[in-house]
Design brief:
By secondary structure, the protein is mostly helical. 77% of the residues lie in helices and 0% in strands. It has one domain. Helix 3 packs across helix 12.
C-alpha cells in the first residue's frame, strides 16, 4: 500500500507548496498593489541613530539566535563524539541551508550529520530530529498562547476569527502530541523504518535533557520574536509590547503548523504577517518589509553561509550529494 502511493507523494507535496507560494504572494501583491501602481509612495527607514541602533541590535540577536542553536547541537552530539565549536557552527549553518528546502526544519539533519564521524551518523540524525521537535514544541506553545490572547483582544472587532479557532485547535493537538510523544511512541511502534526513526528521536535523551533543549528552544523563540518586533519598529510600526509579541507568536505558530519549506512558505509568511499584524497597524508596506527583512537576516544570510561552507568542504559535499541523489531516486 505504501509503495503504491509513493510515486504520487512528491508531486502532491510539490503542488501543495506551489499553491502556498502562489497564494501567499497573491495576498502580498494585493496588499502592495497601491504602492505598485504608484497611488501610494514607497517608504523606507531613514538613516537615523535610532534606526542604526535597531539594525545593530537585530543583527546581534541573529548571532545569539544561531548561537543558541549551535549550543544545542554541540550538547546533543556530545555523547557521540567531542564536537569543537567550529564544527558545530559549520554543521548548524549547513543544516540551515539544507532545511530551506524542507518542511519545518526537518531537513537539518541531512546537513548536520556529515560533520560527525560516519559511525555516528545515525545517532546524529536522531539528535537533529529531537532538536527540531524541541523547537516545534516551544513554537507551538508560544503560538497557542499568542492565539488565545489575539482572540481575547479582538473578539469584538467584527472580523471572522472562526478559522483562527480551527488553527488554534490544530496547534493544541500538535502540542499535545509532542508533549505525550513517549506514550505515542510506545503505542505506535511498528515495523516501519521511518516510524522507528521518529520513535527513537522521541526517546533519544533523558527527560531532563529534553526539558533543557525545550528551554533553549523557548529562549531562541523569544530571541527571533524580539527581532521581528524590533524590525517592525525599524519600518515605522510601533506596537504595544504584549499585543505585538503575542501576534508575532501566533504567526510563527501558524507557520510551524503548515508543513512548508522556508522557500515555499515565503509568500505565506508575508501574508500571515500582513493579515494578523494588520489588526494592530494599517501600515501594510512596513509589515511586509519587516517580515521579509527578518527572513533575509535570520534565514537567507545563514543559508548562503551554509552553502558556501558546503561548497568549500569536499567530504561533506560529496556525502551530501550522494544522499540527496539517493533520496530523489527513492
Amino acid at each position: 500500500m505504501q509503495a503504491r502511493f509513493k510515486p504520487y507523494l512528491r508531486p502532491l507535496l510539490a503542488t501543495f507548496w506551489l499553491a502556498l507560494l502562489a497564494y501567499g504572494f497573491y495576498y502580498v501583491f494585493s496588499a502592495l498593489y497601491p504602492y505598485l501602481n504608484g497611488k501610494v509612495a514607497w517608504q523606507f527607514p531613514a538613516v537615523t541613530p535610532f534606526n542604526v541602533f535597531l539594525f545593530a541590535i537585530i543583527c546581534v540577536l541573529m548571532l545569539l539566535n544561531w548561537g543558541i542553536e549551535v549550543l544545542k547541537w554541540k550538547w546533543a552530539v556530545s555523547d557521540l563524539e567531542p564536537t569543537p565549536w567550529g564544527s558545530a557552527v559549520r554543521a548548524t549553518l549547513v543544516g540551515v541551508a539544507v532545511s530551506t528546502w524542507m518542511p519545518n526544519r526537518l531537513g537539518e539533519y541531512i546537513g548536520k550529520v556529515f560533520f560527525v564521524k560516519p559511525q555516528h551518523h545515525f545517532g546524529a540524525v536522531i539528535s537533529a530530529l529531537h532538536l527540531s521537535y524541541a523547537q516545534i514544541i516551544a513554537t507551538l506553545s508560544f503560538g497557542l498562547a499568542g492565539g488565545l490572547y489575539f482572540i481575547w483582544h479582538f473578539q469584538e472587532s467584527g472580523q471572522m476569527l472562526d478559522p483562527l479557532l480551527y488553527g488554534l485547535a490544530a496547534l493544541g493537538l500538535m502540542l499535545t502530541g509532542a508533549v505525550m510523544r513517549r506514550r505515542i511512541a510506545r503505542w505506535a511502534r511498528r515495523q516501519n523504518r521511518y516510524l522507528r526513526l521518529f520513535i527513537m528521536s522521541f526517546t533519544r535523551f533523558s527527560v531532563r535533557m529534553s526539558y533543557i533543549f525545550i528551554a533553549l528552544s523557548a529562549l531562541r523563540f523569544l530571541v527571533f520574536s524580539t527581532q521581528f518586533y524590533l524590525a517592525l519598529w525599524l519600518f515605522g510600526i510601533a506596537l504595544p509590547p504584549l499585543a505585538g509579541l503575542s501576534t508575532i507568536s501566533l504567526i510563527y505558530g501558524l507557520l510551524t503548523l503548515i508543513p512548508a519549506s522556508a522557500l515555499a512558505g515565503l509568500g505565506l509568511r508575508g501574508a500571515l504577517a500582513s493579515y494578523f499584524i494588520g489588526f494592530l497597524s494599517s501600515n501594510q508596506l512596513g509589515i511586509i518589509q519587516a517580515s521579509y527583512f527578518i527572513w533575509l537576516v535570520n534565514l537567507l544570510l545563514p543559508s548562503i553561509c551554509g552553502l558556501a561552507l558546503l561548497a568549500l568542504a569536499p567530504a561533506p559535499r560529496s556525502a551530501f550529494l550522494a544522499v540527496f541523489a539517493k533520496s530523489h531516486r527513492g
